[in-house]
Amino acid sequence: MRLAELSRRSGVSTATIKYYLREGLLPPGRQVNTTTAEYDEEHLRRLRLVRAMIQVGRLPVATVREVLGHVDDESLGRTLRLGAALWALPQVPEPDEDDEWIQAAHQRVGELLQTLGWSNAKLLVTISPAYRSLVVAVAALRRLGYDWDPEMLVSYGKLMHQAAVLDLDFVETHPSEAEKVETAVLGAVLVEPMLQALHRLAQEEESARRYGFE
Amino acid sequence: MRLAELSRRSGVSTATIKYYLREGLLPPGRQVNTTTAEYDEEHLRRLRLVRAMIQVGRLPVATVREVLGHVDDESLGRTLRLGAALWALPQVPEPDEDDEWIQAAHQRVGELLQTLGWSNAKLLVTISPAYRSLVVAVAALRRLGYDWDPEMLVSYGKLMHQAAVLDLDFVETHPSEAEKVETAVLGAVLVEPMLQALHRLAQEEESARRYGFE
DNA sequence: ATGTTTGGATAGTGCCGTTATCCAATAAGG
DNA sequence: CCTTATTGGATAACGGCACTATCCAAACAT
């Protein structure tokens, strides 16, 4: 398969494919000679993966490169590969640790993890970007005066844990190690937009159910 | 309060505040004379809201303007205001309806809504941007060969419905109508990043629990 | 009175995903 | 073959976006 065909079958313009090749998101094709390179089904699959991460997962190109780098890194165990890939995902800007709201949020999220029993990798978890994002979001909500029950956060946490169990159960159904990691990463990158869409649909549904259209 | 103080108390540069004023994200201050305008606590709150939507919710400036426009629109009932605000949120690019994967995904998502009993606003729901996002995500996953059990999607849907129930229960605790809508919108914009962070933490936790660090 | 600060208008900056333009080498068609 | 079109690679250009910097005249502070 040559560039033009790869482009046709994926729906991505040749210019963009060239760009991805340059950026290292796509491995180069098998070079036949100076002006011909041959691509295969694996390239097509990779290209679709990249597109999905960018369009559905809204990841920046640089992040896709980083995430795929971790997925491809065979020197790490599964948990660490998954962790590394997840850590590369875009996060909220660094919070100001001197801010009182941020400090209070640290406190609250710490208690949350305690309550949920997510102490497994506590040391690790508290420096995880996801932890930081959570702290920033909690702080933002409290700064706006939304002073909600910590119990609510626990309920959300339990729900998302159930989702994670579903994710990882699904990962188990895939045979190869490489596929497992890729699947897990997709679980974060593509399943999250899905959960988000479901969340919004559920809100619309529940709102209509409760209040009609007034 | 003048611009400089608003800037100091919010941590946002005066240049950026001016930009938000220009973009209509912030109502103008009370004009004292040609070179002086007076801002109040409501401006500060609004500014924090805007910042949270941009930094935590990752919304583009234009989207924030649109969402806030709907929140402020007092001519609509609650469900419609919420719906309008949710519909303004950034979505996945328009899918190619001729694509076979997209068509299959429509089918599958339709069955999902049926199973979940979210037929309440079915006509509305199927043209909702969230519905479209869901279809695109499902299609992308299947295109990559992830051919998972429809039952899984149902489980995710039930989880997110539980989350939506929590959201709206919380909204009930707020007295005023305007606050209710704002709260509901924040439920989509700020709670979603929170859920996302919890999801990732839960994945890390569950992965470590199952496989250790190998 | 005079140096500083104010808000408003406008232009510029840096990043990022993508697209367009050239180019020489090579494949394809008659 | 010989022409014509296409290929991949390098480089530059583009358009959008979130800010940021520069000016300016009016008004405040001392």
Automatic annotation (TrEMBL), chains A, B:
Transcription in keyword set: no
Name used for this protein in its record: Transcriptional regulator
Keyword annotations: DNA-binding
Membrane recorded as keyword: no
PROSITE patterns per the UniProt record, alphabetical: HTH_MERR_2
A molecular function GO annotation: DNA binding
PANTHER family per UniProt: HTH-TYPE TRANSCRIPTIONAL REGULATOR ADHR, REDOX-CYCLING DRUG-SENSING TRANSCRIPTIONAL ACTIVATOR SOXR
SMART domains: HTH_MERR
Domain HTH merR-type stretches: 1-70
Organism: Streptomyces lucensis JCM 4490
Pfam family, one: MerR_1
InterPro entries attached to this UniProt entry: DNA-bd_dom_put_sf, MerR-type_HTH_dom, MerR_fam
